[in-house]
Amino acid sequence: MVAVAGILVIAGVIIAIDVPSLLRKKEKKELWVFFILLLIGISLSIAQALHIEIPNPVDWITVIYQPLSDLIETLLK
């Protein structure tokens, strides 16, 4: 639980540093992207800290391209 609190504190510091300048410049789209990416990062970090298994994106890519790889392999033999 200490790790989760640490992650949230660090996220708060990041927000305190970056958000005021985005608000001053009235960059609303950048602010939305910032919060979305920060939320994704915080979520993954908390899941990692709580030892929740996070699927590997490379496994998804392998599932998608494996049939194509098998086809090319049989054609080249």
From TrEMBL:
UniProt name for this protein: Uncharacterized protein
Species this protein is from: Metabacillus hrfriensis
